[in-house]
Specification:
Blueprint: H1 8-18, H2 23-30, H3 34-42, H4 49-59, H5 63-66, H6 82-96
Helix pairs in contact: 2-3
């Protein structure tokens, strides 16, 4: 099975879209222009270290994930009941072992 590689630009766009956020909204959160966010997503420029940290905080992922140092991202279970956490773990296992 081939491993799909995502660039930093791809990850920023995927994370932003996964939460239903526009480029303008992300720019406002980070104190940037929309064109700055667009340039990141197009791979025309890369965010500074400060913005990589802010992006990680905004999307609840690690900086290592954004920079391609690790293949996994995190999911916050804050505020979920034990039953809900169990259900989330069951779904994850279902995707990891589809023949189960």
């Amino acid at each position: 099975m081939s491993k799909e590689l995502f660039t930093l630009a791809d990850k920023i766009k995927l994370l932003r879209e996964s939460v239903g956020m526009t480029q303008a909204e992300l720019a406002r959160i980070l104190g940037l222009s929309r064109s700055g966010v667009n340039a990141w997503e197009m791979g025309l420029s890369i965010p500074s270290t400060q913005y990589v940290v802010e992006l990680a905080k905004t999307f609840s992922v690690s900086t290592d994930y954004l920079l391609g140092m690790e293949d996994t991202s995190t999911i916050s279970i804050k505020g979920l009941t034990e039953k809900q956490v169990s259900a989330v773990l069951d779904v994850i296992q279902c995707f990891k072992n589809p023949d189960r």
